[in-house]
Amino acid sequence: MSTISIVNPSTEVEIASVVMHDVGETDRAIERASAAATTWRRVSPADRARLLRKFAEVIDDHVEELAQLEVANSGHTITNARWEAGNVRDVLHYYAGAPERHAGRQIPVAGGVDMTFYEPLGVVGIIVPWNFPMPIMGWGLAPALAAGNTVVLKPASLTPLTAVRVGELALEAGIPDGVFQVIAGEGATVGERFVTHPSVRKICFTGSNVAGRRIMEGCAAQVKRLTLELGGKSANIVYADADLERAGAMAPYAVFDNAGQDCCARSRLLVQASGYDRFMEYFEAAVKSVKVADPRDESSEMGPLITAAHRDTVSAYVDESTVAFRGSAPSGPGYWYPPTVLDGSDRSERAHCEEIFGPVVSVVRFEDEDEAIAIANEGPYGLSGSIWSRDIGRALRTARGVETGTLSINSNSSVRYSTPFGGFKQSGLGRELGPDALRSFSEEKNVFIATEA
Ligand code: NAD
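# nicotinamide-adenine-dinucleotide complex -> structure
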């Protein structure tokens, strides 16, 4: 039996050893999920809603335990980790309201009555990355179960602990056996088997573009339903007419949150030339005051990177560019890296074009609205972004012009469980969350009843 050693990224100490499942075990889990799907879909909408609410309550009772587990496994700050565990609870509550409202339509036709039903797909395979193990689990899990599907979920090999615990809590909450199973393992074994197994009817994948493309090819063989949430290189656009003090104070948190290991990180900071110097004064002071410290410390604002290898990758990007200034970080043990600001004037640099997935931002000047939009739209991604301006017309024109899925004006926020989330261009395919998520976990069926002889 193969195992993987789980290392705390802020101490470099091994904290657990987790069994990595093989293809045979994955097949057995999928078969259990398939059998459970025939009974779960028949659970009445009211009872399914009750079970999801109970699941949310059990998560609520364990928020602190789950948060502490995430701090140890992923190095997330305790404040963020509590939010993440609470987000699983909240998304379960939100979609608990859905089974009784997932109504089909009655369509006027000649000669009879026509109606549509939303049928569950069957087994859904959810594949999760290491950067936000809990929220990304919840975003797929909650609507999939609410729509009457069963779920097999593969956490990332580096960060399986909270998913394994949530799997146990589901059983404690009374979610029937086989309806939600967590299968830790490698992408090349467990993940690929989700893609090739014919009983898995949909894949929800969040992760890198390289793996996403491979999964999309795999799904094509069976015309398997697929949602992709992939990489990003989002822009934070600051106009000179913005509240520059506030924009400067907030900008570090738009990119350094979760040590920049965030698909929505605004890792390109575009600043209008006429406000540049004033904004940069506020921004530099804010970057230098970001508290990078032991993630268990209640006042820590940024923890370590996930592994030493990932720190090397981040560092290689920075070495090829020009550092404008940076904050500080502990020396170790732990995979620490300081918040780093690059001079982004050469927009052909790798550090400016590629997703670094670390606490690194490159700053670029622009002259006017058209140039801001043009720069923001450079590159293959379109996931997130922010716009700072007091002119609401300009802010909205810019929001409509930027090719990206989730934008905020005068705010850093990206994700709310009640609003749709997903990417333009190569940042993904499909949308998660929001009021329509259940549709992507259902097949729409049309039934006609003849009423004429
Ligand atoms: P990754 O692609 O290496 O792995 C993601 C998951 O896919 C892991 O569970 C992995 O084991 C599995 N996997 C890898 N290859 C596979 C294959 N061939 N078949 C099936 N499963 C496979 O990504 P990562 O390094 O864990 O995560 C970082 C990436 O995720 C970044 O690019 C980031 O932008 C992206 N991300 C996107 C979003 C979003 O919502 N758009 C959110 C978080 C992270």
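# post-check
The chain has two domains: 2-230+427-450, 235-416.
Residues 235-416 form a domain with the Aldehyde Dehydrogenase; Chain A, domain 2 fold (CATH 3.40.309.10).
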